[in-house]
Amino acid sequence: MKKIFALSVLILNVCVSVVATPAPALPDKWKHWLDEEVVYIITPKEKEVFLSLASEREREDFEKAFWLQRDPTPGTPVNEFKDEHNKRLKYANEFLGRGSFQPGWKTDRGKIYVILGKPVDVQRYYESAQNLVPCELWHYQGDTSLGLPPFFYIIFYQDQGSSEYKLYSPSFDGPQRLLQRTLQTNLSRHQAYQKIREASAELAEASPIF
Fold first, then answer.
1. In the chain, beta strands by DSSP E
2. What is the DSSP string of 75-127?
3. Residue with more model confidence, 163 or 63
4. Helix (H, G, I), strand (E, B) or coil at 23
5. pLDDT score, position 129
6. Can you tell me the mean pLDDT for 103-128?
7. What whole-number distance in Å separates Cα of residue 86 and Cα of residue 59?
8. Residue 107, beta-bridge partner list
9. Where are the domains of the chain?
10. 36-64: buried (b, 16+ CB within 10 Å) or exposed (e) per residue?
């Protein structure tokens, strides 16, 4: 459970850090590239360097170098990293912005999808007699070389009255958030956890109490 908590905090920090301050005046092409296309994968240092560039040629050279250093098979005509990244953005915009006033890439589900890719499995819990709010439980196999656990969950939930899915944090939200509003204020964290476990042991495991 500690790994799940630590991972949730890490992801929350990533999502906050990538919502950076607006870039200074740039041509629309480069503003879109910086603020939408690579916003989740460009490092702070890379962004600093890019914003210091003054000419179109310098920005074009920077973009080429940016993708080249991420290419797992340099010297071949295909950059698998870039292609996969663009596929993730496309999917997020087509499918993960539904029910939101934001484009898909800006939603919590879109951010995670672009950063981590397609989950191994998704379990959906719909509002029902089980007293849950609509939830999605995403299963991932983590890259241990990046400090991730070999297997972990991410939960998204719909707040009462909202159709947008939010990233769930065990520490900031607590298990009460995953229950219908009539139960949220009447149950302790432990009682809420037990209610969730009655509906799904796996969902409860991913929403631990501390």
1. 121-125, 135-140, 152-158, 165-167
2. TSS--HHHHHHHHHHHHHHHHSSTTSSS-GGGSHHHHHHHHH-S-SEEEEE-S
3. 63
4. coil
5. 59
6. 94
7. 19
8. none
9. 11-115, 119-205
10. ebbbbebeeebeeebeeeeeeeebeeebe
Give the C-alpha separation, 4 to 199, whole Å: 20
157 forms bridges with which residues in the sheet?
135, 166
Whether the CB-CB separation of 130 and 198 falls below 8 Å is answered with: yes
Q: What are phi and psi of 98, to 5 degrees?
A: -65, 135
Backbone angles phi, psi at 111, to 5 degrees: -60, -50
Q: Which residues have C-beta within 8 Å of that of residue 18, sequence separation ≥ 6? A: 39, 40, 111
Beta bridge partners of 154: 138
Q: Which residues pair with 121 in a beta bridge?
A: 139
Helix (H, G, I), strand (E, B) or coil at 73: coil
d(CA 173, CA 12): 12
The identity of residue 111, as a single letter, is K
* CA 180, chain centre distance (Å): 24
* Residue 132 CA from chain centroid, whole number: 22
CA–CA gap between residue 43 and residue 53 (Å, rounded): 16
Q: Which of 158, 160, 120 is nearest to 138 (CA)?
A: 120
Q: Coil, strand, or helix at residue 146?
A: helix
pLDDT in tens, 66-93: 999 999 999 999 999 999 999 999 999 9
Quote the pTM value: 0.84
| Integer Cα distance of 163 and 135 in angstroms | 11
Which residues, in sequence order, are CB contacts of 32 under 8 Å at separation 6+? none
